[in-house]
Amino acid sequence: MVSCSNLIVRLAEPTDCSALFKLIQGLAEYEKLSHAVTGDALALKEHLFGSHKYIEAILAESDDQAVGFALFFHNYSTFLTKPGIYLEDLFVLPEYRRQGIGKALISKVAQIAVERNCGRLEWSVLDWNEPAKEFYRSMGASILDDWRICRVTEDALIQLGTVK
Question: What class is the 8-161 domain?
Fold first, then answer.
């Protein structure tokens, strides 16, 4: 474990995209999904800071090194008739874990949700990731047993999108 001194948690800036993408690759490696990473830092930058902003990101830095991130976007609850925030990814480099960085990142996203009058903050967790589930529960999160994620990608998405 590396000591985390001078922790800074801040909104990502355009110059952070390469470091942010390296952290995304680290997350994919941790989840044994490196093969699924097909994007790049340039596309990430466009989606974070382009004319249409699809996502937002928060970066955690220690001694001028990017050590973690949270990436999120808005969703909407029709039942609450309020916007929400979906936390797509939360990741801290393994050697910096258990120092409060993950909690600082998710707390910052929660603060943004409160400031924007969101009705909820949601995210997914892999079923095998017991340390993450324990961490999320310790912050008051409920893990919903009766909901499942549905996903359509690649050829199936194209086929579904071209149905007449």
Answer: alpha beta
